[in-house]
Amino acid sequence: MDIFKGQNLLEFSDRFKTDGDCKEYLALIKAKTAYKCLKCSHTACQKRKDLSTECNICRHIESPTANTLFHKVKFGVRKAFFICFEMSTSTKGLSASYMAVRYDVTEKTARLFMLKVREAMSSSQNFPMDGDVHVDEFVLGGREDNKVGRSYNSKKKKAITAIQLTQDGKVKRMYAMKIEDFSAQSLQYIFIRHISKQAKVVTDKWRGYRPIAKAYDITQIESNKGLNFKALHTMIHKVKSWIRTTYSWVSDFNINRYFNEFCFRINRSQSKETIFDNLINRMVKADTIYQAKIIRK
Ligand SMILES: [Zn+2]
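Above are the sequence and the zinc ion SMILES. Below is the predicted complex in structure-token form.
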């Protein structure tokens, strides 16, 4: 069986007509990694007709959805596949209320499943950005005014973002994350998680970056009202307006998941052919996320 390629909805619905078609796809992905019984860790099993596997020692039966983010999805794997397809191939990002209407599930159910998908979209952190990287902070929510200085006590959500540029100044990759404040202590995390020490980093003159420059190759230049960071500021504008128009309210608890989704699509805009398969592989490999981890406390 081939992997599903492309973004064509008709081809997609022809390929995945039933829950069984989807389970077959999951079973195929699982079969690419060596079998290990979830109960007793034995490494040999029998394949059953319903696509599940049965351990040769303890007889534990594992369904294709077990231990994946499709586990116990109440509305069926097929709807879940369609939601994954829409979330990975759309350019905008879609709200839970829209998905609820389109797939006839409750908004709460749609929201919970979409949070799992966003979790699967998070970066592996295995491929830090190198080359030319621009970094800046921004605020989300509240009145949109021009940034004048950095306020430490503002109630607005604070975030930091980094982009890697191509040789002709276009965006190659992007990461963003929530931060508590604009101190070096907080700013450093995007460097630790997503930026290689070999990268040539450029920031504006904010003093918070100075301590980080001891460990990273950072050049600080005048922002010139953003003109020196054009590609970066375009991306900041895009992520802010996407969040503002798609989600009326985004909690602190979930903001990083929305950034994950946005960056997942940006970082794969050159590989749209395989973006759905990439996401499903991540859904299979991600550790099962329990609702407790996803529901806002
Ligand atoms: Zn077993």
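Residues 148 and 225 are 10 Å apart (CA to CA).
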